[in-house]
Design a protein that fits this description.
This protein is an all-alpha fold. It has a domain at about 65-90. The protein contains three helices and no strands. It has helices at about 10-35, 50-90, 95-100. The chain is elongated, with a radius of gyration of 36 Å.
Length: about 100
């Protein structure tokens, strides 16, 4: 555009624009170099084996979390059932802690 006669009146704006574009280009190149030289490995480094390992670990973690939640729910249910059974017993029943003097 600098060399075209129709844009002669915009010469300073074109020069400023070129300068800004060169600066942006240098920044992008710098960021690209820093990423290429870092230890970060992105999606393009995943192969079928590493992708399968990643998915397997995700499934295992999800299963373990579900199992822990189920166990916590189950233990809470057992405790509430035991309390309910205890409350339904005869107050003089020796199996009740209060009747045995263990309170």
């Amino acid at each position: 555009m600098e060399r075209m006669s129709g844009f002669a009146r915009l010469k300073s704006e074109i020069s400023n624009f070129k300068s800004i574009c060169e600066s942006i280009s240098r920044q992008i190149r710098g960021w690209t170099n820093s990423l290429q030289n870092s230890d970060i490995e992105g999606q393009r480094h995943l192969n079928d084996r590493s992708r399968a390992q990643y998915e397997s670990q995700k499934r295992k973690d999800s299963f373990d979390a579900g199992r822990r939640q189920w166990r916590a729910d189950f233990e809470a249910k057992l405790k509430s059932d035991a309390v309910a059974r205890c409350e339904r017993r005869d107050p003089d029943d020796p199996r009740r802690p209060e009747a045995a003097g263990d309170t």
